[in-house]
Amino acid sequence: MISFESIIVIGQGKVAKECARIAGDKFDNVKLLDVNEISNLDEYFNSLKSHLIISANNTYIFKPRCVENNAIINYHNALLPNHRGVNAHIWAIWCGDEKSGITWHKVDNGIDSGEILIQKEIDIENMSAKELLLAQHMLAISSFSELVDVDFAPLCLVANDPKISQMHKKSELPNGAILNLDWQSDMIMRFLRAFDLGIFANISRPRVMHKGELVEIDCYEIDPTEIKITLKNQENLIIKKD
Fold first, then answer.
1. Which residues of the chain are under the pLDDT cut of 70?
2. Residues near 56 by Cβ (< 8 Å), separated by ≥ 6?
3. Which string of b and e fits 162-188 if b means at least 16 CB within 10 Å?
């Protein structure tokens, strides 16, 4: 591996912490960056040169100067080039994808458009968004360990062509986060599973039009014949499966 001044891991949660630990077991001068200690992230990252930056569950967008002067590797919770941008786990379920997964890729001046280093697949089946995200995080950690073993050499030949995929923005959610009761039951179930985020909920709560007003959905149950939706006002909606 090319010599770097240091390896800086930036991100939140278990993935970033585990990546810092794994890298630290093999390389010297590995730092897990606490972004709360940095008053100006643009200034900090633009001042770096010849560092390896590991981006794991990180929302900061690196500026061209930092990209040009450093090597940056990012974790994305989708099979790129599919579902670039944010909330990839939500969109994968909503779109009815049979498979999702994870990608570690190099960072360039686009969004999730750099060279793919490694990818791993996950069969979605009937997963909720929280279940998929947890599976992705675990796979991201084990895949990062594989990359460390080969000094971050590419382990995948998949082409990352952003022109063939859609990028999801933070302001966009499936159907504006509003459930349409006129949908077929399969579509309703995909919507409910896509917004079933548990402790990872950081988006608008899903809502449904009920008695002339939009009401938040609190929880749901799916059995072989029907879907039961409990609203925040404790009223229940029963939908028979098609």
1. 1-2
2. 9, 10, 11, 15, 16, 19, 74, 75, 140, 144
3. beebeebeeeebbeebebeeeeeeebb
Compute CA 129 distance to the chain's CA centroid, rounded to the nearest angstrom: 10
CA 223 to each of CA 69, 95, 113, 128, 228: distance values in angstroms, whole numbers, following the listed order: 54, 22, 40, 15, 8
Nearest to 167 by CA among 73, 56, 82, 106: 82
| pLDDT (tens digit per residue) in 101-129 | 999 999 999 999 999 999 999 999 999 99
Token readout for 225 is: 């014949």
CA 216 to CA 225: how far, in whole Å? 24
Cβ neighbours around 131 below 10 Å, total? 18
CA angle 50, 61, 10 (to 5 degrees): 60
Would you give the end-to-end CA distance of the chain in angstroms? 56
Q: Are strands 71-76 and 99-106 parallel, antiparallel or unpaired?
A: antiparallel
Collapsed DSSP state (helix, strand, coil) of residue 29: coil
- For the segment(s) 174-240, the CATH number from 3.30.470, 3.30.450, 3.40.1000, 3.10.25 is 3.10.25
CATH of region 7-168:
3.40.50.170
Q: What is the pLDDT of residue 2?
A: 67
Helix axis angle for 13-26 and 129-149, nearest 10°, is 10
What would the pLDDT profile of 68-104 be if each residue is shown by its tens digit? Answer: 999 999 999 999 999 999 999 999 999 999 999 999 9
Domain segments of the chain as ranges:
7-168, 174-240
